[in-house]
Design a protein that fits this description.
Blueprint: H1 2-6, H2 11-31, H3 35-48, H4 53-62, H5 68-79, H6 87-104
């Protein structure tokens, strides 16, 4: 994902890297019990690929509540790596979902 963001203006490279990242996240979800961070990355990648906000929110919401703060902080950190135009809108979704998670505790 970071390479896709670093070379954001190269649409072909960006799409290839994001598709590769999505594939790796899907594979990791099948073989890893620590799903919170992977789901967060998967949601962010889906957003960068232009998938609907509902898909992104669903992935963020699936992250275990106990991983919520770690996921939130990691996602904020990721937004700071090679910032791209869609990051601000994703930040808004992240903030909304984090507010829901905090309220559910």
């Amino acid at each position: 994902m970071c390479l896709a963001k670093q070379y954001w203006s190269d649409e072909i490279l960006r799409q290839q890297r994001l598709q590769e990242a999505q594939s790796l996240f899907a594979h990791t979800l099948e073989h890893n019990s620590d799903k919170g961070i992977v789901l967060g990355n998967q949601a962010y990648c889906a957003y960068l690929l232009g998938q609907a906000g509902s898909v992104v929110r669903e992935s963020l919401h699936q992250a275990p509540t106990e991983d919520g703060e770690m996921l939130y902080n990691a996602a904020l950190g990721d937004l700071g790596i090679h910032p791209v135009p869609p990051d601000e809108a994703f930040r808004e979704i992240l903030e909304e979902e984090w507010t829901k998670v905090k309220g559910a505790k």
